From TrEMBL:
Its EC number is 6.2.1.54. SUPFAM superfamilies: Acetyl-CoA synthetase-like (SSF56801). The keyword Ligase applies. D-alanine binds at residues 189, 293, 473. Belongs to the ATP-dependent AMP-binding enzyme family. DltA subfamily. It catalyses: holo-[D-alanyl-carrier protein] + D-alanine + ATP = D-alanyl-[D-alanyl-carrier protein] + AMP + diphosphate. It is found in: Cytoplasm. It is an enzyme of class 6 (ligase). This is D-alanine--D-alanyl carrier protein ligase. Pfam families: AMP-binding, AMP-binding_C. ATP binds at residues 144-145, 284-289, 365, 473. Keywords: ATP-binding, Cytoplasm, Ligase, Nucleotide-binding. PANTHER family: ENZYME, PUTATIVE (JCVI)-RELATED, PTHR45398.
C-alpha cells in the first residue's frame, strides 16, 4: 500500500515548483505545501486529538490536512459557512488540542490552542518531518447531518483513504499533472474526491469558492484563467455551469474528464454534458461519507444514455462488496467503511456492524442490482439531498421545535422532475398567526444560529394541528401530498 506522504515526497523531489493548490491568485507549490505542512505538523505532533481546520477555500486548509496526516492526529475540516452553534458543537465533540484557523472570520474558539497561518510560517522545523500516521489511524472526521439535531462525525481510516485515492487514480484516464477542479467545501467529503487523487498524481487542485458559485461571472473568469482538465462536483453544480455559454468542447477543449458524486445524476444533465463534451470521460459515482466518498462507478456513454432512462451508479470498486437486505436496503461491506461516528455509540451501533474483522454499513439507500449494474432507488428514511447537500429532515424538525414560535413541525421536501427543489415547513405555531411574513422571519432567524442556510425551509405553512395516521403517527405522506 502506498503512503500519501511518500508519494508527495517523491513529487516534491521531481517537481518542487509545480503548483499543488490554487485559489484565484493564491497558490502553493508542492515544495511550499511540503514545508508548511512540516512546520504545522511539528507544532501539533503530540496531539492526541484531531486538529480542527477552520476556513473556506484557503490553500492552507490543504496544508492542515497534510500536516494532520504527518502529525498522525488526523483532522476535522469545518467550513466557515457552518453556523456558529453547529461549529461549537463539532468542536465540543472533537475536544481538539489544536485549531488551525485559516479564515478571516472572528470565531470565538472555546477550547484548543488556535494556530494562525503566520504562526505556522514562522515556525522552524527539523529538515524532514517523518509521517506518524499508521494505516488504521483515523485520518479525517467529517460531520454530517444527524436526525437528533446533533451532527454525526464520520471517522475514516488512513488505509480507507489510500485505497480510495488508488481507485480514483486507476479511473483517471488522464494520468499525471492535471488541473483539477474542486467545487465542494472541505467539510463535505466530495472534496476528498478531488484533493487526494489530484495530489497523488502531482496535479493542481483548483478551488471554487462560494462567491464563484453565487456569481457565474467569477466562475467563468476562473475557468478562463485556468484551463481545467478534471472536474469533480455534484450534478447540481454542473447543471448550473451548463448555463455558461462558453462551456463546451470547442471553446473549452482542456476539459476531458468529469467525476460526479453525492446525488442522483439526472439523465437529462448527463445527456446535455455528453452533447457538449462528446470526447470527455464522464463518471457517475455513488457513495455515502460513511464509506469513504464513493464505492461504485460507471462511465456514462451515449450507449448507457440510450439504454437507461434512469442512470445506474455502476459496479462496486475493488475491496468493497454491496448487497441488499430483504427490504432492499443497500449494505456496504469492506475496508471503505468508516470505523463509526465519533463518540456516538448509539448511532454507530444502529448502522455499522463488524463480522470477522470486516465492517459493514447500512446505507439507508434503497437499491437494486440489474444488468450487472447497481441502481439507487431513493431512501428508506428521511434523509434527502438538495443541491448536493445531505440533510436529515428530522434534524431540521428537531431544531424547529426548539423555536419558541413552534409547537409542532414537519419539514416537507418539494420535488420537481424527481429532485428536491425546496423545503417547506408545516408548522403548528404557539400563537395565532397575525402576520405570516413576520412569523416566518422570526422562525428563520431562530433556525439560523443552528442550521446551515441550505437547511432552512424557504416557506412555512401554518396548521392548527398536524394530521395523524391511523396508528397515531404524524401523517407525513398526507402533508407532503398536499404541499407537493
Ligand atoms: P453524502 O454522505 O453527503 O455523500 O451523501 C450520501 C448519499 O447521497 C447516499 O447515501 C445517496 O443517498 C446519495 N447519493 C450519492 N451519490 C449518488 C448517486 N450517484 N446517485 C444517487 N444518489 C446518490
Amino acid at each position: 500500500m502506498k503512503d500519501i506522504i511518500n508519494v508527495l515526497n517523491s513529487i516534491v523531489k521531481d517537481s518542487p515548483d509545480s503548483i499543488a493548490v490554487r485559489h484565484i491568485d493564491d497558490t502553493l507549490s508542492y515544495k511550499e505545501l511540503d514545508e508548511l505542512s512540516d512546520q504545522l505538523a511539528s507544532l501539533i505532533q503530540d496531539s492526541k486529538k484531531p486538529v480542527i481546520l477552520y476556513g473556506h477555500m484557503s490553500p492552507f486548509m490543504v496544508v492542515g490536512m497534510i500536516a494532520g496526516i504527518k502529525a498522525g492526529c488526523g483532522y476535522v475540516p469545518i467550513d466557515t459557512s457552518v453556523p456558529n452553534e453547529r461549529t461549537a458543537m463539532i468542536i465540543d465533540k472533537t475536544e481538539p488540542e489544536f485549531i488551525f484557523d485559516t479564515s478571516d472570520e472572528t470565531f470565538e474558539f472555546k477550547q484548543g490552542k488556535v494556530l494562525t497561518i503566520e504562526g505556522v510560517q514562522n515556525t522552524s522545523t527539523p529538515e524532514v518531518f517523518e509521517s506518524h500516521m499508521k494505516p488504521e489511524d483515523v485520518v479525517y472526521t467529517i460531520f454530517t447531518s444527524g436526525s437528533t439535531g446533533e451532527p454525526k462525525g464520520v471517522q475514516i481510516q488512513y488505509t480507507s483513504l489510500i485505497e480510495f485515492a488508488e481507485w480514483m487514480k486507476d479511473l483517471n484516464q488522464l494520468g499525471k499533472g492535471q488541473e483539477w477542479l474542486n467545487q465542494a467545501p472541505f467539510s463535505f467529503d466530495l472534496s476528498v474526491m478531488a484533493i487526494y487523487p489530484c495530489l497523488f498524481t502531482g496535479g493542481t487542485l483548483n478551488l471554487v469558492d462560494k462567491d464563484m458559485i453565487k456569481k457565474p461571472k467569477l466562475l467563468n473568469d476562473m475557468l478562463q484563467k485556468t484551463p481545467i482538465n478534471v472536474w469533480v462536483s455534484t450534478p447540481s453544480f454542473i447543471e448550473m455551469c451548463l448555463l455558461l455559454p462558453t462551456l463546451d468542447e470547442k471553446q473549452y477543449p482542456s476539459l476531458k474528464e468529469f467525476f460526479f458524486c453525492g446525488e442522483i445524476l439526472p439523465h437529462r444533465t448527463a445527456k446535455a454534458l455528453v452533447e457538449r463534451f462528446p470526447s470527455a470521460t464522464i463518471y457517475n459515482t455513488y457513495g455515502p461519507t460513511e464509506a469513504t466518498v464513493a464505492v461504485t462507478s460507471i462511465q456514462i456513454t451515449p450507449e448507457i444514455l440510450e439504454k437507461y432512462s434512469t442512470l445506474p451508479v455502476g459496479q462496486a470498486r475493488p475491496g468493497t462488496t454491496l448487497s441488499t437486505t430483504d427490504e432492499g436496503e443497500l449494505i456496504i461491506t469492506g475496508n471503505s467503511v468508516s470505523v463509526g461516528y465519533l463518540k456516538n455509540k448509539e448511532k454507530t451501533q444502529e448502522v455499522f456492524s463488524t463480522s470477522e474483522d470486516t465492517r459493514s454499513y447500512r446505507s439507508g439507500d434503497r437499491a437494486k442490482f440489474e444488468d450487472d449494474q447497481w441502481f439507487i432507488q431513493g431512501r428508506i428514511d428521511f434523509q434527502i439531498k438538495m443541491n448536493g447537500y445531505r440533510m436529515e429532515l428530522e434534524e431540521i424538525e428537531t431544531i424547529l421545535r426548539q423555536s419558541s414560535w413552534v409547537r409542532e413541525a414537519v419539514v416537507v421536501p418539494i420535488y420537481k422532475n424527481g429532485r428536491v427543489t425546496q423545503l417547506i415547513g408545516a408548522v403548528v405555531p404557539t400563537e395565532n398567526v397575525e402576520d405570516s411574513a413576520k412569523l416566518s422571519h422570526e422562525i428563520k432567524s431562530d433556525l439560523k444560529s443552528s442550521l446551515p442556510e441550505y437547511m432552512i425551509p424557504r416557506k412555512f405553512v401554518w396548521m392548527d394541528q398536524l394530521p395523524l395516521t391511523s396508528n397515531g403517527k404524524i401523517d407525513r405522506k398526507k402533508i407532503a401530498e398536499e404541499l407537493n
